[in-house]
Amino acid sequence: MSRVCEICLKGTITGYKVSHSNRHTKRKWFPNLRRVKINDSYIRICSRCFKKYGVQIKLAAAK
């Protein structure tokens, strides 16, 4: 199961953590994902999509 939003396809981003002495080490930034239940199945969406489409998703789950 990958860490990707199923609506906007936002995923992980890689980069460097830079210390005070300017050393670079690899790191990852993960999207803020939520599991949302729709019609007896779960999808993973990011918090921005949840804010944008959350009411519509809840209405679709209620039907």
Give short descriptive properties of this protein.
63 residues; alpha+beta; elongated
Please explain how this structure is put together.
- With 63 residues, the protein is an alpha+beta fold.
- The protein has one domain.
- Helix content is 25%, strand content 38%.
- It is built from one helix and four strands.
- The chain has one helix spanning 47-62; strands spanning 13-18, 24-29, 33-38, 41-46.
- A two-stranded antiparallel sheet has the order 1-2. Strands 3-4 form a two-stranded antiparallel ribbon.
- Strand 1 and strand 2 (24-29) form a beta hairpin.
- The longest helix has 16 residues, at 47-62.
- The mean pLDDT is 89.
Instruction: Please tell me the total number of domains.
Output: 1
Rg computed from alpha carbons, rounded to a whole number of angstroms: 16 Å
Structural class: alpha+beta
Strand content: 35-45%
The main β sheet shows up as: 2 strands, antiparallel
For the residues shown, what is the average pLDDT?
Answer: 89
Q: Quote the distance from N terminus to C terminus.
A: 27 Å
- In helices, the fraction of residues equals 25-40%
The run of helices and strands is: EEEEH
Shape: elongated
Q: What is the tally of beta strands?
A: 4
Number of helices: 1
Secondary-structure map:
Blueprint: E1 13-18, E2 24-29, E3 33-38, E4 41-46, H1 47-62
Antiparallel strand pairs: 1-2, 3-4
Summary, kept brief:
This protein is an alpha+beta fold. 25% of the residues lie in helices and 38% in strands.
